[in-house]
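Regression test case RT-17, inverse folding.

Input:
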């Protein structure tokens, strides 16, 4: 059952900015691809021309969207840079392992608490439960949010293969007896708190997750990787005490239902390749670049 509450909230300007960022990433990757004749990054003017904007607009886009210069933007796409961050991520996971697992993770000014659904909650198929669902613009395009009274149970990005209606139907397949309340303003408020937290405030979020014990273990481990730190699948498998389970870890990472807050985008290949991402590999690169800017501007 769906109760419409508010109209859809969208920000055309934000969506256009992310489309330009996506186009810039694809163009820069093509320029340094092994299939091209050159492995040097294009000039600032060439990139602006490709995006059909002025160099001044391009500079302003990078600064406002990610807080970094065009040169830093290009550097973030290089495999050597990613490999260096893997080493940092290894150190971070080792420290976290010594401290032991916690149900709370601090990601800059985001305080995230982790709770698994009980077998009874799963068996009920959502009977007696009410979820608030909605969508809104994030720095990475349209995002979909589903909230229970215990926290977020789904946060996904729109892709070519995932529309809002498809996402909503997916919620109903998991919880056929749930009551859904459509509220885009509530979703947008959550999105704003996640991606644009107040400089001096800590935003708190509860995650109410449905998954197998192994999936939950992997997702909880991911929360030990802060922005700017990357880990390989092998490192993540070793961290949870199952070094031979790299493939199973990869499968669990791919099924993560909570984008960004459970940072599966921070797990990459040991070679430095960022690899696939449930919500598009270009968006994974954009997340990586954006977080580098987040660290730079908040040091």
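Golden output:
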């Amino acid at each position: 059952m769906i109760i419409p509450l508010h109209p859809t909230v969208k920000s055309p300007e934000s969506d256009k900015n992310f489309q330009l960022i996506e186009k810039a990433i694809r163009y820069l990757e093509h320029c340094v691809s092994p299939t091209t004749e050159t492995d040097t990054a294009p000039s600032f003017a060439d990139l602006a021309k490709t995006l059909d904007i002025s160099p001044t607009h391009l500079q302003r886009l990078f600064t406002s969207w990610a807080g970094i210069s065009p040169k830093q933007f290009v550097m973030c796409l290089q495999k050597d840079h990613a490999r260096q961050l893997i080493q940092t991520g290894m150190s971070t996971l080792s420290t976290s392992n010594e401290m032991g697992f916690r149900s709370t993770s601090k990601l800059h000014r985001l305080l995230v608490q982790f709770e698994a659904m009980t077998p009874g909650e799963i068996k009920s198929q959502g009977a007696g439960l009410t979820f608030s669902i909605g969508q809104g613009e994030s720095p990475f395009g349209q995002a979909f949010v589903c909230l229970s009274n215990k926290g977020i149970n789904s946060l996904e990005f729109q892709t070519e293969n995932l529309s809002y209606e498809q996402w909503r139907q997916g919620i109903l397949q998991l919880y056929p007896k749930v009551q859904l309340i459509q509220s885009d303003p509530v979703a947008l408020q959550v999105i704003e708190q996640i991606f644009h937290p107040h400089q001096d405030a800590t935003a708190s979020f509860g995650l109410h997750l449905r998954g197998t014990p192994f999936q939950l273990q992997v997702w909880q481990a991911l929360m030990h990787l802060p922005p700017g730190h990357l880990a390989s699948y092998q490192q993540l498998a070793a961290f949870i005490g199952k070094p031979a389970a790299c493939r199973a870890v990869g499968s669990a990472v791919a099924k993560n239902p909570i984008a960004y807050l459970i940072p599966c985008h921070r797990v990459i290949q040991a070679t430095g390749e960022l690899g696939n991402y449930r919500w598009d590999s270009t968006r994974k690169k954009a997340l990586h670049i954006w977080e580098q800017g987040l660290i730079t501007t908040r040091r």
